[in-house]
């Protein structure tokens, strides 16, 4: 799927095309905190929160906004690009 998630992801499941907003949100939480075996990766976390928000997760919208305030604008742009790529592959 996404190169950054595949490279960073050692043992964590990648989101499937039919993943729910809640599933994407939970995976985003792992990347945003570096817990559950996930590396701390704000770009991947933002991408997952973005996808979760698109699938109806209100919490993801809040976390995405807070996270984007901590990120460089080019990293936010990369996260958005990766979300579009993931959707196109779905």
The residue ranges in which pLDDT falls below 50 over 5 or more consecutive positions are 1-11
Number of helices: 5
The quaternary organization reads as: single chain
Order of helices and strands: HHHHH
Q: How much helix is in the residues?
A: 55-70%
- The gyration radius over C-alpha positions equals 11 Å
> How much is the average pLDDT?
86
Percentage of residues in DSSP E strands: under 5%
Tell me the domain tally.
1
In one word, what is the shape? Answer: globular
Distance between the termini: 9 Å
Largest sheet, described in full? Answer: none
Structural class: mainly alpha
Number of strands: 0
Description:
The chain is mainly alpha-helical and 90 residues long. It contains 5 helices and no strands. It is globular.
Q: In short, what is this structure?
A:
This protein is mainly alpha-helical.
Task: Name its key features.
mainly alpha; 5 helices; 0% strand
Question: How are the elements arranged and paired?
Answer:
Blueprint: H1 3-8, H2 21-33, H3 42-54, H4 58-70, H5 73-89
Helix pairs in contact: 2-3, 3-4, 3-5
